[in-house]
Amino acid sequence: MLKEKFDLTGKIALITGSTRGIGKAIGDAFEEYGAKVIRHNTKVCDLADPAAIDAFCDRLAAEGMLPDILVCNASIQAKIPWTDFPLDEAQREIQVNFLATLRLFQRCYPKMKAQRWGRLITVGSVNERRPHPDMCVYAATKSAQENLVRGIGRQVAAEGITVNNLCPGVFNTDRNRECLADPVYGPKVTAAIPMHDYAAPEDAAGAALLLASDAGRYITGATLTIDGGLGLPG
Q1: What is the largest CA-CA distance in the chain?
Q2: With the C-alpha atoms ordered 7, 35, 216, 29, is the resulting torsion angle positive or negative?
Q3: What's the pLDDT at 27?
């Protein structure tokens, strides 16, 4: 009985940034459990361009492919001290990491409301709680996204729609591989993680599947942390 609650057969899932890393692992898991997955990258839709987002959603609507499950995973980040952070780069991060999420939520919500079933999921970052000194803007966008989840979650809960946030810790993806391979920085990061290990992209897949399926129907407005204990006190 419980196994059946994880089944996504007949569901359409859109995962932004899903051709590599965490997004790809989530997409693979959703496909394994029966969903039709729409893979996204910048060639499919550039989230830095608001007009492109609406055009993309228009195409999906015309093809009857607006998602039942939306995972906003794509993001960009720049490591620059806040005192030197260029305004245009800050605006770009805010657009891709936050405003694109808001717009995709807005465009996908009506279908979910009409069918009284939907899943809105964001992929945040440990930075939303412990900002990296040189990624203050990125951390701020992730905090804003998490706040959006809590705000919307209460409003749509009675409509059969859940809204949740995944908070990954240190994942060994292509984005982080170079810095984690550093002989000084890498061991320092590992020592700070109680499990003394990095996460693999697949470590996010089970959590995403829970939130996307009926197995997680009673979870909303929540942040599910996947960080090997990094955020624990002590």
Answers
A1: 55
A2: positive
A3: 98
pLDDT of residue 180: 73
Bridging pattern class, strands 69-72 and 118-123? parallel
Structure tokens at 96: 């891709």
Question: What whole-number distance in Å separates Cα of residue 191 and Cα of residue 177?
Answer: 17
Burial class (CB in 10 A: 0-12, 13-18, 19+), 212: buried
State both tokens at 216. 């997680």
Q: Please say if 138 is a catalytic residue.
A: yes
Select which of 33, 138, 185, 218 is catalytic. Answer: 138
CB of 85 within 8 A of CB of 140? no
Whether residue 128 is predicted with pLDDT greater than 80 in this model: the reply is: yes
Tokens 């960080």 appear where? 227
pLDDT averaged over every residue in the chain: 94
Number of other CB atoms surrounding residue 190 within 10 Å: 15
- pTM exceeds 0.85 for this model: yes
Give the C-alpha distances (Å, rounded to integers) separating 78 from 50, 52, 214: 20, 23, 37
- The residues near 228 (Cβ < 8 Å, ≥ 6 apart) are 169, 170, 193, 194, 195, 197, 198, 199
Strand order in the sheet with 161-168: 36-39, 12-15, 69-72, 118-123, 161-168, 223-226
pLDDT band at residue 198 using 50, 70 and 90 as cut-offs: confident
